[in-house]
Amino acid sequence: MAKDMTLLWGSGSPPCWRIQIMLEEKQLQGYNHKLLSFEKMEHKSQEVLDINPRGQLPAFKCGNHILNESYAACFFLENQYKSQGNKLIPDSPDAQALMYQRMFEVLTFHQKIVEIVTYNFRVPEEERHDSAVQRNREALTAELKLWEGYLNKTDCCLAGKEFTLADVVFFPSVAFLFRLGLSSESHPVLAKYYNSLKDRASIKATWPPHWQSTPGPDMMKTI
């Protein structure tokens, strides 16, 4: 099964990491994979374009099926391998509804992070506007407060006691924030969530390799 799968990925990319976690959770180790460099623009290579014409990572092929959107890949893998590995969609209608709701809210959560990261990296410092920087930071601050409120209402994971698809897509973005210097003291609820899951087998096995050897920027330390 896994030998028919190919994943082209970039270290530290939350969308790539989601698929990697999902493959571990479903016990689909042994898939073909290749780590590519964003810095070297390898995501624009023909190898990637043959699978993902957008020239983006992840580029994921499962048999004859191409699923480059991380959410699509996660849903597909859960539905195709329901009886294998960990079950990631709860049976309870309440937990299931909450899982789906939080999953799709993660898209907004992650976008708030991206708006800060891409602004700082793509706009030269002399061309930045303080008002835009402040607006992005305030938007993320409000978003973090919202999610800490959500987590205060659950046992440990996003949809209750069990690890679900919502956590598969949420955790990489949370880890990315702490990689960028988010303060555990200022955000104890998110820190508790992060610390409770960072040693989970599927997460530990797929931890971004370059995070282990190089420190991240601290652009989020005052958020």
From TrEMBL:
Instruction: Tell me what organism the protein belongs to.
Output: Amphiprion percula
Pfam families the UniProt entry points to = GST_C (PF00043), GST_N_2 (PF13409)
UniProt cross-references to InterPro entries, sorted A to Z: Glutathione-S-Trfase_C-like, Glutathione-S-Trfase_C_sf, Glutathione_S-Trfase, Glutathione_S-Trfase_N, GST_C, Thioredoxin-like_sf
What's the superkingdom here?
Answer: Eukaryota
Q: Member of which family?
A: Belongs to the GST superfamily.
- Every copy of the GST C-terminal domain together lies at 92-219
Residue ranges of the GST N-terminal domain?
3-85
- Gene3D superfamilies recorded: 1.20.1050.10, Glutaredoxin (3.40.30.10)
Q: What is this protein called?
A: Glutathione S-transferase rho
